[in-house]
Amino acid sequence: MTEQQVVEQPEESVPATAPEPAPRWYSRWSEVPWRLASKSQMARADLPREPAGPVRGYVAGRDYRDKEMEVALYDVAESRPTKATGVQLASAEARRSASVRVCTDCAAQCQLPLQERQGRYLCAMCWRIAMVVDTQIELRERRAENAAWARGLFEAAPLAVTWVELVAAEPTSSGRKRPPLAARVHVVDENGKRVADVLVRLAGPRTKGAPAEAVAPEAGAAKLTKAFAGRRRVVWGPLRTVRERLAELGHPVEVAAPAPGASAARYLRSRWPNDVASRYAQWRGELDPATGELRTPWPPGTADRLWLCLKRMAETPDAGRPGDSERRRKEAGERPYGGPVGAYDVRVAVTGPAGAGERLAELLAAQEAVLPASVVGPVPSREVPGAVVTYMAGRGEVLVPAPADGDVVREG
Question: What is the per-residue pLDDT for 252?
Fold first, then answer.
């Protein structure tokens, strides 16, 4: 009997599948990308869908009892249409009266029901625009407040306009922060002239790493006490840390009271902090176009530059009215941006309650006084709280009465 050799064939390797990514967590709905939606959002869409895949994320929310909860989010690409037919959806839409899906401002035909805001139902973009406009209005009011605050500073002279920077120490091997090694304190008076520029050591003589040119804590404390004597402080930077470190080393700094609203973070209103750096950012009032949030401006860098910023704040006129560029173009006889050509050469702005501008536009359009396609808005009024503005283009010979000499006056 011959022996037969049996050769075992190796089993085919099964390719390993990549693990499913962990669901991502979002702290607010504005952070949730458009491709993700909750089960209830899919059900409330005008073309409803239902999840067919795993949970891809969670967003913080509240239930009907106003208790905190996490709302599961699903990928719309992994969902499927519900069993409702087009005829059934059309019949349901005819019976439905509570849900509004057409944006009041831009007429977008939205998939999800819209929320009401000050009498208007806005899509996500128009809602964001309205929020940005509200922030701009608040910043304009806040700019006037900060200008008055800055003028009050110079009326409270003598001042010590102070800029503080710390020299940080290397952290420990475990990552724990060490106290700062030194600090540069730059002080100018109310005229921008230098009062002191001190690099003071904030560590003991045996601590390594401090700048060699830094003066001893005793000498630095004496110079700072002299610089601040009889002057009201306007501080940008961690002066409190400098004073605390010098006090721990046995050399306290004697200072006068800070200028009103110039010390660290007290709040006149919950939204706008009152420290100098925050007031400076509010005065500039630049919003990030991507997020609508107030931008943090580049820091002045020195006390004399901080003094210059305060002078500019104090001299700020009451400017920046909404629609100012449009008004100036009209006064110069230029055509408004996007204005129609031809006989419709007058730009009309109607300010009033919601719906007033649209009703007036319908009335004037029936008389061929305005072009229906030119109606824009309404948008929130920056001048009249609670009112809205509607823009339209009209015919000058109809809207603008002719003077006695027969010449027709038109606004560009």
Answer: 93
Q: What angle do CA 240, 246, 250 make, to 5 degrees?
A: 140
Residue 61: closest CA among 30, 27, 35 = 27
- Pairwise CA distance, residues 215 & 198, whole Å: 8
CA–CA distances in Å: residue 228 to residues 236, 240, 254, 261, 266: 15, 14, 8, 17, 22
- Mean pLDDT of the 71-100 span: 84
Q: What is the mean pLDDT of residues 104-116?
A: 86
Amino acid identity of residue 62, one-letter, is R
SS3 at position 293: coil
Quote the pLDDT of residue 336.
43
CA distances from 110 to 41, 45, 194, 349 (A): 12, 9, 61, 27
pTM for this prediction: 0.62
Q: Classify 119 as helix, strand or coil.
A: coil
Q: Does 16 score more than 50 pLDDT?
A: yes
- Looking at the chain, the number of H-run helices and the number of E-run strands are 10, 17
Structure tokens, 328: 């100036």
Q: What is d(CA 116, CA 288) in angstroms, rounded to the nearest whole number? A: 25
- H or E segment at 241? helix 239-248
- Residue 196 has phi, psi (to 5 degrees) of -160, 150
- Cα 279 from chain centroid? 15
Q: From 210, 200, 194, select the one nearest 251 (Cα to Cα).
A: 200
Q: What is the mean pLDDT of residues 341-364?
A: 72
**Phi, psi for residue 382 in degrees, rounded to 5:** -85, -15
User: What does the alpha-carbon distance between residue 134 and residue 115 come to, in Å, rounded to a whole number?
Assistant: 17
Tell me, what's the pLDDT at 319? 55
pLDDT the model gives residue 246: 95
- For 232-260, what is the mean pLDDT? 88
Give dist(CA 11, CA 21) in Å, integer: 29
Structure tokens at 121: 């139902």
Determine the Cα–Cα distance for residues 185 and 229; give it in Å rounded to an integer: 15
Neighbours of 217 (CB within 10 A): 22
DSSP 403: -
> Are the C-beta atoms of 140 and 382 separated by less than 8 Å?
yes
Q: Which residues of 138-156 are buried (b: 16+ CB within 10 A; e: fewer)?
A: ebbebbbbbbebbbebbee
**Torsions phi, psi of 306, nearest 5?**
-60, -40
Residue 118: predicted pLDDT: 75
Check if the beta carbon of residue 370 is closer than 8 Å to that of residue 394.
Answer: yes
